[in-house]
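#lab-general

N.A. 3:47 PM
ok so I finally got the sequence cleaned up, no stray characters, all 128 residues accounted for. can someone with queue access submit it? mine expired

B.Y. 3:52 PM
send it over

N.A. 3:53 PM
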Amino acid sequence: MESWQLHEWFAEYLDAYNRHDPEALRAFVDPHVRRAHLPGGVDAFLSDAADLWHAFPDWRWRSIQVIAEDDRIAAHVRGSGTHTGVYAGIEPTRRRVNVAEFVMYRIVNGRIGAATGSGDAELRAQLL
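B.Y. 4:20 PM
back already:
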């Protein structure tokens, strides 16, 4: 994909994520996606998204900056939502959280083939 196509692809990906639509999101993720320090595969990817959506029903990602080149996307995104369900063993706090995340994706045949990110340490810290 060209750089401009990757930017559009990423905007569509975030839209699917923000709609909390697992089937739409599945179309963006390779069945065998590799994730740094996390279980691989699209089902694990979607399970983690579902856990986030359950704990934060109003969760939304906002794109701050995206750099796209060759088959790579580097993005700075901000996520926010209200903690109303159990997340990573943490009972609901009803706190509104707002976190920064930095992610890198390798796009293979129009899908996320590999992903790494800054993790959820900032999110957990806001809940404890």
